[in-house]
């Protein structure tokens, strides 16, 4: 029943209380087989955790040994009491310590890392004075580790700081390979090297999580070489992407979606009455029906509702556009909402990076979000185990060499995480009940249109 406390919130006033924190193994100072100091890092904050053999705290010698052999940069959950140290602690950002009761390894980093945070953080003066450092190429090759330094955390927090604890990122749009595994990419020549336009910020937003940014978002262009004409596909659209570390369950991501969108819809309804009226005059539509607490249904429940209405759909396949619309109508009838989340999709119809359900790998920790029966969002928990990720990529026919650096990111310690992608033009189109995505794109790009 414990909830996680942020390391930066550990202050003197909390002395005596039991806390649970999640962070990386920064360093370990060995004292004896019965005692050691584990420094845990969360973003730029460091706290000293004292591990002492103790009957009272149920800490055995084996437990001390277990903590000692943890690889640095691994993720750990630490349970312990906040204590005021006798002498002031040096080399940490927090002035209190944690007397450890339990340590769990959430995700282990490789024992030997290609780059260490302290080497990446070395000042130029120190390097000139002969201390070990890392050159620029090494730092850029292993950027997900390099970005964990306090300096880089600072640079990118300044660049993208927001009040809600999400950092805005800008990921590259020129990539060496596809990011969604699909075939619909625009290929181009990158100074003699084959390249393509990003189909999504997927791989880089996940790498930003591996680089300790914890919660990131991006608003940017997404390129898909769609080969057919529909009312809701563009070749270039604006993607709103979110990625975040999670503690226990992909419902943490759905909680965010489920609260964020009703908030946005309410704000639009309050602040844009004149605009909505102007739109409605030319293209009449009914205001969107949505609930204050967003409805969630599992994919299996959706299939069941369709079945009861006489529509057969494959429980391990995808829904086609027509079936999605039909389900939208059934949901409206039964729950009086045109905005809802459908989750626990069959694994076979989700991208390779999607986390399978722990209780049944035929299903996945994933979701889509619908407005008026049409998809506006896809999201999921991601696989953060590099072996499983490689296996799933291969199964989807992806050349794993082209995403090697992405897969390797999960070898340097990665937290459980997930996120989602929103199509901006689709949200506006469907909120306003418009029938074509070209109406909500400033200068639409579709398979036949490259101008104006
Ligand atoms: P996304 O591509 O982001 O997942 P989507 O709405 O295209 O969004 P899909 O799962 O790819 O979702 O497709 C859902 C259905 O939409 C498909 O089963 C198909 O009926 C239809 N569809 C998807 N892409 C196209 C396309 N390019 N042309 C025509 N129909 C399409
Ligand atoms: P997906 O491919 O479902 O997921 O895309 C996310 C959302 O983007 C919108 N969208 C489009 N809009 C206009 N034209 C298109 N051709 C088009 N394709 C997609 C939709 C869709 O819901 N990386 C994942 C997201 C994630 O899991 O974080 C992804 O790209 O609104």
From TrEMBL:
Keywords: Aminoacyl-tRNA synthetase, ATP-binding, Cytoplasm, Ligase, Nucleotide-binding, Protein biosynthesis. Its EC number is 6.1.1.12. Transmembrane segments: none annotated. It is found in: Cytoplasm. It catalyses: tRNA(Asp) + L-aspartate + ATP = L-aspartyl-tRNA(Asp) + AMP + diphosphate. Residues 165-444 form the Aminoacyl-transfer RNA synthetases class-II family profile domain. The keyword Ligase applies. Its main location: cytoplasm. Belongs to the class-II aminoacyl-tRNA synthetase family. Type 2 subfamily. This is aspartate--tRNA ligase. It comes from Brassica napus. The lineage of its organism: Eukaryota, Viridiplantae, Streptophyta, Embryophyta, Tracheophyta.
């Amino acid at each position: 029943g414990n909830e996680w406390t942020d390391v930066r919130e550990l202050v003197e006033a909390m002395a005596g209380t039991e806390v649970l924190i999640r962070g990386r193994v920064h360093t370990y100072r060995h004292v004896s087989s019965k005692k050691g100091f584990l420094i845990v890092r969360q973003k730029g904050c460091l706290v000293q955790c004292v591990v002492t053999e103790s009957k009272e705290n149920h800490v055995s010698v084996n437990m001390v040994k277990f903590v000692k052999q943890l690889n640095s940069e691994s993720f750990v959950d630490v349970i312990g009491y906040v204590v005021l140290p006798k002498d002031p602690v040096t080399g940490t950002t927090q002035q209190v310590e944690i007397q450890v009761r339990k340590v769990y390894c959430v995700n282990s980093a490789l024992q030997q890392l290609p780059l260490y945070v302290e080497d990446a953080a070395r000042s130029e003066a120190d390097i000139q004075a002969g201390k070990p450092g890392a050159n620029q190429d090494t730092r850029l090759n292993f950027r997900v580790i390099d970005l964990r330094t306090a300096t880089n955390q600072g640079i990118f927090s300044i660049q993208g700081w927001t009040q809600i604890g999400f950092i805005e990122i800008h990921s590259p749009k020129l990539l060496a390979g596809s990011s969604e595994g699909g075939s619909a990419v625009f290929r181009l020549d990158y100074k003699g090297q084959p390249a393509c336009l990003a189909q999504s910020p997927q791989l880089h937003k996940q790498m930003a999580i591996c680089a300790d940014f914890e919660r990131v978002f991006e608003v940017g262009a997404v390129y898909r070489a769609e080969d057919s004409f529909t009312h809701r596909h563009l070749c270039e659209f604006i993607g709103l992407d979110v990625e975040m570390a999670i503690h226990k369950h992909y419902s943490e991501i759905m909680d965010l979606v489920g609260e964020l969108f009703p908030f946005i819809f309410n704000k639009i309804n309050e602040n844009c009455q004149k605009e909505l009226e102007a739109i409605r005059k030319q293209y009449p539509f009914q205001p969107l029906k949505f609930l204050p607490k967003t409805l969630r249904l599992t994919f299996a429940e959706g299939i069941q509702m369709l079945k009861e209405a006489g529509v057969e759909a494959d429980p391990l396949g995808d829904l086609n556009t027509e079936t999605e619309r039909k389900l939208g109508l059934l949901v409206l009838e039964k729950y009086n909402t045109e905005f809802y989340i459908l989750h626990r999709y069959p694994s076979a119809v989700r991208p390779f990076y999607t986390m399978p359900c722990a209780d049944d790998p035929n299903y996945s920790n994933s979701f889509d979000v619908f407005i008026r029966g049409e998809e506006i969002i896809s999201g999921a928990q991601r696989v953060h185990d590099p072996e499983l990720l490689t296996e799933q990529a291969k199964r989807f026919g992806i050349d794993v060499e082209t995403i090697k650096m992405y897969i390797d990111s999960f070898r340097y310690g990665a937290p459980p995480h997930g996120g989602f992608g929103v199509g901006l033009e689709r949200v506006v189109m469907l909120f306003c009940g418009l029938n074509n995505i070209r109406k909500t794109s400033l200068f639409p790009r579709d398979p036949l249109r490259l101008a104006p």
